[in-house]
Amino acid sequence: MPAQAGHDEGKSRMADRITATERRLIDDWLEHRPQREVKPTPTRPRAVYPDRIWRGPTPKLRPDARRTKLGPMPVQAALEWAFRREAAQLELPERRSIEERGSGFGMEYVLMERARLGGVQIDTSIGSSEPHDDAETIAAIVSNLPGDLGGLRQAIRVSELARAGLEPNWMPGAVPRWQPMEWRRDRAPGFEEGKAEVCGHWVEHFEVAHPKNPAKAIRRSRRHELRWVPCHLHPTPGAIARARANYQDWWFSLSHIRRSLKACGMLREVSITDAMPSMQPWGDAE
Q1: Which contiguous run of DSSP H or E holds residue 178?
Q2: Which is the most buried residue in 77, 91, 157, 187, by most CB within 10 A?
Q3: What is the pLDDT of residues 141-198, one digit of tens each?
Q4: What's the distance, CA 134 to chain centroid?
Q5: pTM across the whole model
Q6: Which residues touch 163 (CB under 8 Å, ≥6 apart)?
């Protein structure tokens, strides 16, 4: 208590030293004191480099990829419904031998582990329902693509594209352009140029006046380097041709799947129409 009383007494003495006028001036300054101006942090301008690598447009999800209403639909929409919406899986062959696959465990092991955990029942469900019967039929047709259309490799490619809701990238708008093999960016931000290499040199001979006797001439020589910038075509015509050939392989696979689904007669709630994506969209774009 004495310590607290001494502290209060010290505060009262300090308050007595400040007059009413000084207190009013202090309060007025606190109320109208200038606010500190916060300047925004300067941002570095974004460097704009030339288009060195052709990337093409960003793939976008097709509107029909989220389709849930059954009935007549094109083969591409049916594939996206089966693999994306219903999560159907291809019937891939088992490549491992019986010895490599290993063996399961019996019910005795399950009961022992359940007793070790206190008699609880373990939920081993995966939390999802089985795919639709029509989706399973579509997956089976895709799994049996003939070898001349790519076989299992092409079946996996078709199913993954359908699962992602995309089409093969046929490089729309790609034009081969000459570009440097290597770029250098060691100058101002945003400046970029092709990296040059020395391919030779040549010597320049010339005469200059003598510094002490202008009537005389002194022969000098200066070595000059010959530089060139290695360039290459990007994208190459071969890369564009391969991308469009892959698109046509995908298109022929869809055509085969469409004919097989219409001929099998096993679809119940889904019917395949004759609509197909463009066979040569690069020709339509031109």
Answers
A1: strand 177-180
A2: 77
A3: 999 999 999 999 999 999 999 999 999 999 998 899 999 998 887 767 777 888 889 9
A4: 32
A5: 0.61
A6: 80, 83, 84
